């Protein structure tokens, strides 16, 4: 590289070959014959510059650099897996202008974010969770727009059999596994986000998203017991919040959650990949509407159960739906043949230490010592050599205590005539679960979800956050780590027009 400087102010820099540093440890060489750049001083030649001014100038530049990249968006969770208490995890989301708070169940088994709207037939007006039952009113938000049938976003919704068009309005009708349902129409409005971009700083931003405005609810959704304002669908469909935010460059195409399993519950949901050294991954099965992974075998006390692997396979002929990861399911479910083998193996392993009994058609055990000392470890073994290790608390639920003895029941269920396995909150709790949509894989690691977590913005890493899972509405403690970056312009000289 050759260069000549001409003593003038501004300074003219003539290059025949320039070395350009980008935001990595890579240098790109571009040769032009010749290339002339005019430089000006940011500060006068004889002007003494305070170090604080230089730091402030650099911080503004770094802020601009970081704004060009997606940030970490985190949601604090409340709720527990325990079906005798709450039986779901939920978070606060802000929508509309002015912004209003809505408390939504997090659900990786469905795609669409929807909230109860006004007016609504069957929507509960109070909740045992002690949360305000706010109803979304499109007419009270200055940024709300209904989605017409001609809108391309409606076309994406209609790709699902749950959506359609009525009177030039894009509509939906969802039905859930418990028989409950909701219907309404799609709107677009602002979703307000707190994005972590530097140190403990948070940038308040917003993104225009499409979500459901529910005007009818049926089944358990009508009950005030454990009622929430709606559901935050985190599936793979183009209308899921993850897909919408990542396609706009607002967030990465990955998200993670860590659900606290203790009595107080709670946890954290992060748009980004939580990074943990002991993380293992298994591939997502392609072209499936849910987060399907390939469960190959189950081991109890290190011994593989005699279960035909086809029991866990996706089969249209036999109604099998494979194995699904679903944070919207409280318990966990096994295909019937697998469940029978599993219960038999557990019962045999503890036959000398417990008193078995049947309670409400569930296999239960009366124990007088610690459940961890009596019941065996279990492993679910997946494609790619990834195993999910389960403690007794991950497959048993305590029912009650009688005279110093405790009654624990198998927490796995089966759905009649459905060869489906669902990994619900009973199994997912006390683990980091990563949904890497870009890499088409799911990962997990055992973790104390009350501790801070390291979050990477992309599969390739490069930048990480440490986010502390606090309580909804509480303060969040954040530390920030940024890899070194090479910047072509110095603190004193800058390219004319570079920031105009």
What are the defining features of this structure?
single chain, 500 residues, mainly beta, 15-stranded mixed β-sheet, 4-stranded antiparallel β-sheet, 37 strands, globular, disordered N terminus
What are the SSEs and their pairings?
Layout: E1 3-6, E2 11-21, E3 27-41, H1 51-67, E4 72-80, E5 88-95, E6 100-107, E7 114-121, E8 145-146, H2 152-158, E9 163-166, E10 169-175, E11 181-198, E12 201-218, E13 230-233, H3 241-247, E14 254-259, E15 267-271, E16 273-275, E17 280-283, E18 292-293, E19 295-300, E20 303-304, E21 314-315, E22 320-325, E23 332-333, H4 336-349, E24 355-359, E25 362-367, H5 371-374, E26 378-382, E27 387-390, E28 396-402, E29 405-410, E30 412-413, E31 420-423, H6 425-428, E32 431-436, E33 441-446, E34 453-456, E35 463-467, E36 478-482, E37 493-495
Parallel strand pairs: 6-13, 7-12, 22-31, 23-30
Antiparallel strand pairs: 1-2, 2-3, 3-37, 4-5, 4-11, 4-15, 5-6, 5-11, 7-13, 8-11, 9-10, 10-11, 11-12, 14-15, 14-32, 16-34, 17-33, 18-22, 19-20, 19-26, 21-22, 24-25, 25-29, 26-27, 28-29, 32-33, 34-35, 35-36
């Amino acid at each position: 590289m050759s260069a000549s400087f001409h003593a003038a102010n501004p300074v003219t820099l003539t290059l025949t070959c320039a070395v350009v540093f980008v935001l990595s440890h890579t240098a790109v060489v571009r040769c032009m014959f010749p290339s002339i750049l005019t430089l000006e001083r940011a500060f006068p030649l004889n002007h003494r510059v305070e170090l604080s001014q230089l730091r402030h100038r650099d911080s503004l530049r770094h802020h601009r650099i970081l704004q060009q990249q997606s940030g970490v968006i985190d949601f604090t969770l409340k709720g527990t897996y325990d079906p005798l208490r709450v039986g779901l995890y939920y978070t606060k989301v802000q929508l509309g202008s002015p912004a209003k708070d809505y408390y939504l169940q997090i659900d990786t088994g469905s795609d669409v974010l929807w909230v109860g709207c006004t007016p609504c037939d069957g929507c509960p007006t109070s909740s045992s969770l002690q949360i305000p039952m706010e109803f979304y009113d499109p007419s009270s938000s200055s940024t709300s727009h209904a989605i017409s049938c001609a809108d391309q976003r409606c076309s994406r919704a209609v790709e699902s059999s749950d959506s359609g068009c009525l009177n030039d309005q894009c509509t939906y009708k969802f039905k859930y596994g418990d028989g409950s349902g909701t219907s309404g129409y799609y709107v677009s409005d602002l979703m307000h986000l707190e994005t972590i971009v530097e140190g403990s700083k948070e940038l308040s931003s917003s993104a225009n998203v499409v979500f459901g405005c529910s005007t009818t609810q049926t089944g358990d959704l009508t009950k005030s017991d454990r009622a929430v304002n709606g559901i935050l669908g985190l599936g793979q469909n183009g209308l899921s919040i993850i897909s919408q935010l990542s396609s706009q460059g607002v967030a990465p195409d990955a998200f993670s959650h860590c659900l606290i399993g203790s009595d107080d519950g709670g946890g954290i949901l992060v748009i980004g990949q939580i990074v943990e050294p002991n993380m293992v991954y298994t591939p997502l099965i392609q072209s499936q509407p849910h987060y399907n992974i390939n469960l190959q075998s189950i081991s109890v006390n290190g011994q593989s159960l005699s279960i035909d692997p086809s029991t866990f396979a996706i089969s249209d002929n036999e109604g099998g739906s494979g194995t699904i990861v679903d944070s919207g399911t409280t318990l966990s479910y096994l295909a019937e043949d697998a469940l029978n083998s599993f219960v038999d193996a557990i019962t045999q392993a503890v036959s000398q230490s417990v008193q078995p009994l049947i309670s409400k058609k569930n296999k239960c055990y009366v124990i007088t010592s610690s459940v961890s000392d009596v019941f065996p470890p279990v492993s679910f073994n997946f494609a790619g050599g990834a195993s999910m290790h389960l403690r007794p608390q991950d497959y048993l639920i305590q029912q009650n205590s009688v005279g110093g003895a405790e009654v624990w029941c198998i927490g796995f269920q089966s759905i009649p005539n459905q060869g489906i396995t669902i990994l619900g909150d009973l199994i997912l709790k006390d683990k980091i679960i990563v949904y890497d949509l870009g890499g088409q894989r799911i990962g997990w690691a055992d973790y104390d979800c009350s501790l801070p977590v390291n979050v990477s913005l992309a599969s390739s890493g490069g930048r990480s956050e440490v986010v502390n899972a606090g309580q909804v509405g509480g303060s969040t403690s954040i530390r920030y780590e940024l890899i070194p970056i090479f910047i072509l312009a110095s603190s004193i000289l800058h390219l004319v027009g570079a920031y105009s």
